[in-house]
Design the sequence.
């Protein structure tokens, strides 16, 4: 700090530089997050639909005999 609690010119420039760097970092991080989100959505839309085939089927014929355990 300079005299009287007023920051010197050099300190003011350093503070402004840090503020600018922090702002640009935040903007870059937000842009990267949006890009990643769009990339994930595009990848999910590109995968083929999986067939809806059940792994286990049960007989629905009521006249069929019950299997013995």
Sequence:
């Amino acid at each position: 700090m300079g005299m009287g609690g007023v920051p010197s010119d050099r300190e003011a420039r350093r503070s402004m530089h840090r503020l600018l760097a922090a702002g640009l970092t935040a903007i870059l991080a937000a842009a990267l997050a949006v890009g990643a989100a769009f990339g994930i959505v595009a990848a999910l839309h590109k995968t083929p639909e999986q067939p809806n085939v059940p792994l286990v089927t049960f007989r629905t014929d009521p006249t069929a005999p019950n299997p013995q355990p």
